[in-house]
Structure formats: structure tokens, C-alpha cells
Amino acid sequence: MFRLQCVRPCLRRLLHHGVGSRDHVLEGLQICSADDQVLDVVGKNRTKLTVEHVSCAVRMLWDFQKERPELLRTVHLIKCHPQFLTLRVLAENKISLMDDLTLVDMLYVFLRLSVEPHDSLVQQMVSEAWRRVDGLPMSSLSKFAVILHDQGLHSSPLMGHITNILDQRLSSIDNARVLAALMVSVSSLVSARLRDALISRAECLLDTNNPLNYNTPRRMVQFLRSVKYTHRPLLEKCNEIFLRNIARLDAENLSIILGLYQSLQFNNCYFRLAAKERLIELIDTSTDPYTFSKLFATLAPISSAEIRERLENTTFLLADEFSAQQALAVVEALEESQSRNLSLLNKITSVIQKKLHVYRSVEVARITQALFLLHYQNPELFAALRTILVSFLQRSFYPFEVTMLTRVLAMLPSPRLDEGVAQHVNNVIAQCNLSELNTISFAVAKWIRTDPSYRHNTHSKYVRLLQRLSQCGRERLQTADQLDLVLDEIKFAPGEWFEEMLLEETFVTLNRMIDQINPSNIADLAFFLTRTNRLNPPLMERIASVAIEHIDEIHFSATYPTLLPFSVLNYEPAHADELYDACIKRFTPHISCFDPHLLVLLAYCLALADHFPEELIREIFSIDFLGKLDCQLESLHDSLKMRTKQRLMELNRAVCLECPEFQVPWFHERYCQHLQKKVNGSVSPVQQQIHTMLGEVLGGINFVRAAVVTPYFYTIDFECKLDKHLKPLPYSGTSTLQISERGKVLWDSNSLENARDELPAGAHRVAIDFMDSKFFCKNTHHMKGEALMRKRHLEILGYRVVQIPHFEWNSMELSTPHAWKRYLRKKILG
């Protein structure tokens, strides 16, 4: 009993001490449910606040803001509150007492609460974090990198230090969110080696990522866009996560993702279609200007006419509330969808005019381009835009900016180029890459054509610019030592000036770097060769050998551009069969992963080279696939849609003619009839000349038909019939197709039916085609794959094919009517 009485006072003292040590300030903060309550607690306890209290208060203020939509946040009210100033002063005084995690978190939150980057609080926090940067945990380092990136310090020495730390500690990162934030922040400083290491780590960590977290893969795609690298395996993983979360994505996120895909030239039809459906669902709930402008900019270019009209009506009602950026997004969407809604365009333009003073140079250029392409008629506005563009150009020394402004200025009508603009462009040219030099050359060529003095002589300022462009282009190629950089610069370069002045030098450079061709760049190189339409055996042999040896390292979708120059330019490398077999084996297990339109293009590419993989052909001509293709075509741009339809028809024709065992039906009859009626029936003077001479050689104009439509809708220039003794046979009645004196093909109503005269025993038809330059490679007389496939098909249809190459017909040997007739007689009659 005595012992218990002794213990009781001790317990009382302990209990009293426990109650006395409770943190009432912290408890007061934790029960707050609004911003003003937090700030009241701060005001009542300012002398008692510790680092923990300040940190808790600042975090809570941001947490309350995060929970609200962007438009309902009250950051401006918090920033002006006197007790927020108290928090800032206390935080600045206690920086040295903060641990690493608290320091970076508070810096992040203060910036989110609109404290200016030049404020002494932010400056001291950044300095302290820099001092501790080597010891920061990776989660804090990631957040610190984001802070620096948001402040425009992405190329600073401090960011370089963070990049180095990331390189050393990459293997220790086990959180995809942390890695993704670091990837975006350091993207402007990574080497090719670190880029590949980051991508590899990202692929591993994405497998452990929460499948409902779509922000992390979005940042990874953003990284790929920043480093201009289309890494398809990572993109496909990210795309799967986006598809799983499509019902949770809002208009802003869908707009960002589709924009990133467009920049990377990554087109996934399943995501595109799902995004379109999701955006349509969001129309009714997108009622504020911010959300609706995002929705309109993304959905209008890919929607049906009905949906677009509905969107445009709502846009007209909201137009006066749009900010400068929202009006810009809307006018670009109107241009992309080729809208003809003049009342809406006038309204958006009036909004833009009121806000012209707030736009940056890039934005003014985008506005000018959109209005010009919409054929908008407003001379006063274009004059104002031109003045602003010239002002921006003369103040800029960034090559990409000067190039863009020069290109857009050249669009606008102007009597002559300002001397100051020409001199400024000339001063910047030496810093430009090959793509930028090519763009400037287009602008100069346009200025030359529109200058009133052009017909008399080319002004010396244009000559100086063109000479400077050529000189800088050659120097850049001659000093280049990295194939990947050259390929990146020439990806979109070929044009009239580039082909004339730099293409030969480009091939010299590419051949000099032939040993740098590897699995990651052969697709880009092969695509460049196809676009230039030039045969280069050493480069193509190297592409073939790398593809055969490293086929497993090449993404299955890259087999299409890799094979393209071989099929299109009709070049057989030393191991042609091995190359095609390796590529076919590579993509066949992944047929279902291809976008439908890309699979059609791939199959056509193979058909040109007389390859028809059965599994591929059966997939394309299945009902399910054709249904998918129809759905995808709705969301493609008109040019790609028309090209895909044309290639499907040509593939259908090739399979029917060359692989009848597949029993694929010919289902393009009506499509071809419709196309035939729309085709321009004019013919060249050379074809008229040949038509006349054929009549003389064969014994009369009734012995030859012009512009004959064959079964499966090939149009051959001329057709004649020869008996078994090679004597010409006349056509019964009048020819269904004749050429008028003005060079027009005269079609009668039965011409498309293509009724054919019966042939006597032993007789045969002769197809006579004039082969102009488009059928040959530009640097040789080598015939391209399309002409060869056409010849195969006409022979299957029973024709003997006579081809008249343009370089033979126009040669010095055939410079008289007698020589031409002798040439035709030898070709046709032997």
C-alpha cells in the first residue's frame, strides 16, 4: 500500500508532463478545413511557429488549392494575405534548420503559390538546395529538377550537375514517377548514351507503375519529344496505359498526348479513335473557355461535319471570353479542319487583334500562317502582322526563330524584301542547320518570284543570300561527323534548292559515314533515299547487310521504311531474298499491332517487289481488318486517307492478278470507275506526237487506240493489235478513246465498260506506254518498281508491253520524224 502511494505522485507528474508537451499549434493547423483558417492560426501563433509548423501550414495551403479545379483556385488571395507574408519571412529565417525533404518541398510549394522566382526566399532556398544537391534523396532531387526546369534553368550549370548525379545513380531509382520527372527536366542536356540508359530504365519501371497513373507515361513521352527520338517500344507501353485510362482522361490531357504523338510522328489508330470518342463524350461538360478551347482544338480537325458544326456554334458563343492562347488554339484548329465558317473566323480574328500585343514571336507566326492558309481577307490585319513579324525578326538571333519568321514573312504579299531583313537573315545563316537553310531557301525563292524586278534581273541581295546558304550548307556537310545528326537535319530537307545545291554533297557525306549505319538509324536513312528518288548502291547494300545481321534489333514497324527504297527504286541488293525474308519474319508475329493503314502500305511495298506473304495478305483482306481500316480512315488527314485507299486498290489488283490461289475478290470496280471519271484527260505533246506517228507506222489511225482502260483499270497510253505474222489489225468502228487536237482525251459513255474486240487466232494485243521521268530514278535510267509491276500485270492480262523511255525518245539519235517512225516500227513490229 505504501509503495502504491509513492508511485501515485510520479504517475501524476508524468501525466501532467505528457499533457503539457502536446503541440497545440500543430493540432490547430491539422483541424483547419480552409485557407483562411490556416492563416488565422499562423497569425495567432506567429511567435511560436517552428520549422514543422511553417512547413505544415504551407503544405496545407497548397493541398487545399490542388483539390480545386484550375479556374476555382484562389492563389492570388493567399498571396496577398498578410499572414502569408509572415510565413514567407519565417521560412526564410529557418532555411538552415530544414531537413532536405522539407527544404525542397517548401520551395516547390512556395513557387506553386506564385511566389516570384526572384524573391529572396526562393533565391535562398535554391542556393541552399544547390549546396546540398549531392546528398539529396532521388525523390527530392527529382522535385528540385522540376523546379529548376519550370524556372527556365534547364541548361544551367546546376542542371548539368543534376544530370551527372542522375547518370551515376540511375540504377538506384525504383520509382517511375521520380524517373519520369527527372527525364523531362534534364532532357536538354542528355547525351545519346544517357538517353538510351534512361529509356531502358523507364521501360523496366513502367512495368511496376500503377496502371491508373497516366501522368508518368505522359512525361516519358514528353521526354522522347524533347530529345526528338521515336522509341517505339516505350511509346507502345505508354500508349497501352493511356488506352486503359481513356475514360479518365480529360480534354487537356488528350490534347497534350495527341500533340506529343504528332510531334513524334507516332500514330496509333486505336488511341486516336478512343480519344475521339472520349472527346465527343466531353462536349456537354466542357462549358468554360479554358476546357472548351482544348476540346475544340483537338476534336474539330478529326470530327465529322455534324460534330464540327456543333463545336463551331459553341465556339462562336464563347469567343469573347477566350484568352490570347485559347484564341490562337481555335484559329489553328479552324485552319487544320479547313473551316469555311466566316462569321466564326471573323469573331476569333477580332479577339486575336485585341490581344496582338501579348503574343510572342512564335505565336504571331502561327496566327499569320493559319489565317493565310484559311485565305482570310483582311489586308489591314496582315499588314499589322507583317510589321510585328519584321520587328521580332530583326531583334532575334535564335536560328530556329529567324527561320520560322522568315518562312512566314515570305507567305505574305510584299512588293520587295526589306534590306534590313535580308541582312539580318544573312547574319544568322551561319548558325542554321541544314533543315533551316532549306526553309530559308524556299523563302528567298518566293521573294525572288514576287519581286517586280525579277523579270529583268535577280537583285544582288537575293544572289548573296543564296550563295551564303549554299556555302554554309556545304561547310556543314563537310565538317559533319555524326550520321544521326545529319539524318535528323535532312529528314525534311529535300526541295528544289537542296537537290540542286546540296544533294550531291549530302551523298558524299553519307557515304563517308557509311560505317555509322546501324539498326537504330537505317529506317531514317532508307526513308531519305526513297524521298530523294536516287539510287545509291553502296548505301543500300550497307542498309541491307545491317538489316539482315541485326533484324532482331530493328522494331517490327521499322521494316516498312527499311524495305521502301529497295521496292520503290527497284534495287536488288546482293542478298535480296534474305533481306525480304528476314523482314517478313520480323513483322509477321506483330501483324495485329500495326495500324491498319500502315499494314496496307507495307503490303503494297512488298507487292512492288513481287512478295506476297500469305499471312499478311489474308489479314488485310479479312472482313474484320477492312472494318478497322474504314474506322481509322475517318480520323486520318485527307492526303493520307486518299493514299491509303489508292494503295489498297493497287494491292487488291496485284493479289488478284499475281496470287489467284488466295481467292481474294476484286472489290474496287466502283472505286476505279469513280476515279476514272475524275481523272484529268489531258495528254502531253509528246504523247500526241507518238499517237500521230503510230497511225502512220501501223497504216492508219484506226489501227491504234489511245488511253485504253484495261481490265483492273490500268490506263495504257496506246493499244494496237497484231496478227500472228505481226501485221497490224484495225479496230472495228471508231475508237472509243481518241485524242483531240487540243490534247484532250475524248471519252465516250461506254469507254469505262471497256468492251474488247475478239482477237483472231494467234493475234495479240500490244500495250505502248510512254515512260516519262517519274518512272525512273532521278540519277540513272534505272526503272522504278511501280513501272516494273505495271509491266508484269499487263503481261498477265495478255499484253505484249512496249515501253518508250523519255530519254530514248528525246535523244539526239531520234531527232527526225523518220528516225522516230523507224524506232516505233522496230519496237512494235520487230
From TrEMBL:
Annotated RAP domain residues: 766-826
Highest taxon, organism lineage: Eukaryota
Transmembrane segment boundaries: none
Compartments in which it is found: Mitochondrion
PROSITE patterns: RAP (PS51286)
Predominant localisation class: mitochondrion
Signal sequence coordinates: none
Name the UniProt record assigns to this protein: FAST kinase domains 1
Record organism: Poecilia reticulata
